[in-house]
Design brief:
Helices cover about 50% and strands about 10% of the residues. It is built from 13 helices and 6 strands. The protein has helices at about 10-20, 25-45, 65-75, 80-90, 105-110, 130-135, 165-170, 170-195, 205-210, 210-225, 230-235, 265-275, 280-295, and strands at about 10, 95, 115-120, 145-150, 155, 200-205. A hairpin with a 2-residue loop joins strand 4 (about 145-150) and strand 5 (about 155). Helix 6 packs across helix 8 and helix 8 runs parallel beside helix 13 (about 280-295).
């Protein structure tokens, strides 16, 4: 989008928000850190510092349309002129986060009306394999999600009840437990935050995939910014819009497999994973969550049934 920096993935915002919500860090210290780090990171953007040159990364230079603009910054000057440029042109800082909307209070206290959040939600059934693969490597040294140990098992920070159930479940049951806990919590956080004045656009992944034009119009209106003239290049690269979700791009590490199957066939395959690996109570909980999701974020997936 015009006057928006290329996206960065920085976990510090999540860590500070989680720690603050858990009462592990003072609010004034957390607010200072959030504000200072964002200002510092945006300044570094403008002078070409910390450009991600790793080619395959989602936030790498390969994904940037105006690559030469960023490369030229490597050889430019630095100083207060760039700070003045950021402020006078209202150049936006863009961050991709994970689970930050589960504790948005610190964002509000740190940035107030300056921050705008686009929360992308996705059909819960399509998140089962993703979560299962995530939990499969949860013990890995390079998995940096905040966690604690209970009976020798590593537990994600957001699982603070029914811990025994988590320990005893297989990876698919654990995935369902995470999902049926997080979706209602996410809804509550979004609605409460909106009432308090935090600017949030919650938009479904299915709408972005199947009704891309409408999704882009919503984003433009919400941000008050226009998309770049090169947006069509990005849409083509991401294969948007598309007839089925699996015709797009994804990460194999999260269980993604490209497929030309119909959406109904894919849905039924994902459903079979649940029915083959999860208890009846887990299936019922997931069914209830999917029903809620279909009502709130209707799409062609809403026409498919979850039959126990």
């Amino acid at each position: 989008m015009h006057e928006v920096e290329k996206i960065k993935s920085e976990s510090i915002y999540e860590y500070m928000s989680w720690l603050n919500q858990l009462g592990k860090i003072d609010e004034d210290a957390a607010v200072w850190m959030m504000r200072t780090y964002a200002d510092s990171s945006q300044y570094h953007n403008r002078i070409g510092r910390e450009i991600n040159l790793r080619w395959s990364d989602d936030t790498g230079l390969k994904q940037v349309i105006n690559k030469w603009d960023y490369i030229k910054r490597l050889f430019g000057k630095e100083g207060n002129d760039f700070v003045n440029e950021i402020n006078s042109k209202n150049i936006a800082f863009s961050v991709m986060s994970h689970m930050l909307m589960l504790c948005p209070e610190l964002l509000d206290k740190s940035y107030g009306s300056r921050v705008k959040i686009i929360e992308t939600v996705r059909n819960p059934l399509y998140m089962i394999s993703h979560f299962a693969n995530y939990l499969d490597r949860f013990e890995a040294s390079r998995e940096f999600t905040m966690a604690y140990y209970y009976q020798g098992v590593k537990i994600p920070w957001f699982i603070n009840e029914s811990v025994d159930e988590f320990v005893e479940g297989n990876k698919f049951e654990r995935a369902v437990q995470c999902i049926v806990k997080l979706y209602p919590l996410l809804e509550t956080k979004i609605e409460n935050s909106k009432k308090k004045g935090l600017q949030i656009l919650d938009i479904s992944f299915e709408e972005i995939v199947f009704d891309t034009k409408l999704a882009l119009e919503k984003i433009e209106f919400f941000l008050g910014r226009k998309h770049s003239e090169k947006i069509q290049i990005i849409l083509k690269k991401q294969k948007l819009p598309r007839n089925t979700i699996a015709q797009g791009n994804g990460h194999k590490a999260y269980g993604w497999q490209k497929s030309n199957k119909s959406e109904l066939d894919t849905y039924q395959e994902l459903l079979k994973i649940v029915t083959d690996n999860c208890s009846i109570s887990s299936q019922e909980s997931l069914q209830s969550t999917i029903k809620w999701y279909n009502n709130k974020y209707p799409s062609k997936l809403s026409n498919f049934s979850f039959n126990l």
